[in-house]
Every structure is written in C-alpha cells, then in structure tokens.
Input
Amino acid sequence: MNKERTFEAPVYQGHEKEMYNEIDNFLGMSAKYSPAGARKIRICGLLGGLAAALVLYVGSDKVRADDKFGFTVTMLLLAACGLSFFFFYGRKPFPMMEEFKKIVAEDGVQRIYTDMKISRHIKGSGFSVGDEYVFNNSLGLFRMRDVKNVYIAEYPGRGGKEYHAAFEMSDGRKIPMKRLMGLRDEKRIQEFMGIKSMFRV
Output
C-alpha cells in the first residue's frame, strides 16, 4: 500500500466538497501535504540543495588552499541534504495533516467553514482567529477550546531578545504567532492585548 495515500484529502460531494476545498486552500494543506504537494516540495528541496552545492563549487577556486577541506565538506553536506530531503520528505504521515483531517471529520465541514468566514486575520502573521478555531497556513487548524493560554514568549534574536505573541495548547504545545514589533514594552503589550482579545481564553 502506498504510504502517501494517508495524506489524501477526505472525499466530499456537492456543497460540502466546495466548502472543504475552500478551507483546504485557505490553510494550504493539500498544497504542502498531499502526495502531489509533497512531491513538489521534495523536488524543490533537491534542486535547492544541489544548486547551493553548485554555487559553492563554482566559488571554490577563490578559497585559500587551507580552507578547501571545510568548503568541500559544506558543499557535500548541502548536496546530501537535498538528496535526503528528496528521498525522505513526505514518506510518513504529516501530524498537521492528520490532525486537520481528524478535526474536520469530528466537527464537520460546515462548522469549520462558517467559523473560517468570520475569522479575523492577525496582521503580519499567518494566523486567523474565529470563535471556535484558530487557522494557520503552515500549521493547520486548532480548536479554540483546546487553547489553554495566550502569552508573550521570549526568544533570542540577532539584536537581543525578541518577543512574540504565542498560545499554549492543552497538550502542552507552544505555538508562536507573531513577533511583537514595538520598541517599548508598553507598545508591545498593547499589540499583544489586541491579539489576546481575539481568543476566548
């Protein structure tokens, strides 16, 4: 049995199919996690790794002799990454796609579609928040009732600390949503409170 079939979208008919397709497009699930989407990403990963290795190879004649070994190792690693990405990406079920399909099957297409239509986008992020769900075009779908906390997360950055609005799921997952861009604490807190107000926590 083809393992990639575990990523295929549920089969719907009529209006349900139209609603499902709109949700799927909104989240970009099939574009990334379906067999066709995974193949496209594998090919891009392979070409990207090989192209990066080729660029290094072309530039290798400008490197001093004592740097050649490290340069060659880096080039080979890039090529190996591209090849491994091509052969292994998408060979096992994507947890995000499996969770998405599970929520759709349990809650129904109509309920999710209705909430998607009234969801509000968090500016500068890939997240939209409805009354019952949190939508993200990379991570998929989250139930609002499973959101345990919305908080400010601190991460190291190039110029020092970075602060992000984030939420925590009841299973312990911590999901960063958006970097808070204000230079002063008051500005960041103000932006965070606006985001937090969108959640029913």
